[in-house]
Design goal:
The protein is mainly beta. The chain has one helix spanning 147-150, and strands at residues 27-31, 38-44, 47-54, 66-74, 77-88, 95-102, 104-105, 109-110, 117-124, 132-137, 144-146, 164-171, 174-180, 187-193, 212-220, 230-239, 246-249, 254-258, 263-270, 273-280, 283-284, 295-302, 311-319, 323-325, 329-334, 342-347, 353-358, 373-375, 381-386, 392-397, 408-410. It starts with 26 loop residues before the first strand and ends in a 16-residue tail after the last strand.
Amino acid sequence: MQKPIRCILLLALAGLTASTVRAQTLTSVDINSTLVGSTTESDDNGTKVWTIVGGGADIWGAADGMRYAYMEVDGSNWDYVVKVRDLQGPDGWSKAELMARESNDPVFGFEILPGDRHVSQMTTRAGGQNQVAMQWRHTRDGTSQWANDVGLPFAVQQPAYPNTWLRLRREGPVFLALFSTDAENWELSSRLDTSDTESGFWNGPDAITDPLMAIGLAVTAHNDADVNGATGVFSDFGEAVQVPVAITVQPPATLDISANSVLELSATATGDICKTEWRKDGVLIPGTEIIGGGTIVNTYTVDLAAISDSGTYTLYAEGDLNNVTSDPSVVTVTVDTTPPFMTSAAGSADRTQIAITWSEPVKAPSATTAANYVVDGGVTVSAATLSADERQVTLTTSEQALDTVYTVTVNNVLDAAGLPVAPDST
């Protein structure tokens, strides 16, 4: 039997608590730091807490300066989380990080060195840079990068101490950095494929393929001259526990609509989700895939439904542990028999325009024929412009009087089915 391919896109962990991570024993080391740092372990009602004081100039550039508390992890597929309770330091760029380092040096063996390649999920001081982001070094003793340096997608995220949860996952050469404020609803920060030239790893031998890495907690002061350094307080460090995918909100069992109206279906999936997508009669609907999120609400919309949109729709959700499909939603689109009608009309500040909103899309040239619109009180209509969504017509008129109510009368405007507005509609 063929072995299932593990999803490397994104997972979303639901219900992570202190009881679902395993306390770890860490080795601490100062790297490229004048300050002699410290790592103190304590107990908070059964939860192990690490208070790490670190110096160093930065975790960046060609060489890192920091305090690093780590353990060895051997394997190309893993998933670790940590809660950062607090971060204080002398600089706006003082950092606390969940860091994986490739430290199996061919000369020195397993030793943490300043220029090691690494992939990290970083958080900064709330009173400083106030940012959560993924960063990495793709070449030993080479430059450091983050997503916007190489044009990769990234989310703008801010820490929320004492509930700043960082997560780092490895799937072979692919790393995913995630962020949460409650350990239940996770957001993707960035996804890094170290075998992809987009990420600066240049493919082939530069990809991170060694199964042996260090994983742990890093603190840098971002000011090596500061005598006190930066202090990060961490807890709940350990392996994440996988949660099965489930459809928690089903789409409607049936949906009956007329052609040229809006078709909208929505369903919600939770758990360790890699992706969700809508399918019609069992076939993927292009453009409906959503990757990531602790709770994914996937809504499929067709602004102008056609008879051909009739069919059976399902939401498919794919996860690491399981794949699920929603209950079917049978959509029936019938012939449009409802003519268009105006829902509102409003004048402009300069008193030379009137915006008419329609109940459904209307079509040119009927909607853009100025003669189809009459305004009372001696106001003339010189032009009619149709909006891109075909739901609004803007009339250009002669100047309207102040504090005057006008009536707009419309004839001969057609919808997509060719049905005309009721005669002399106002």
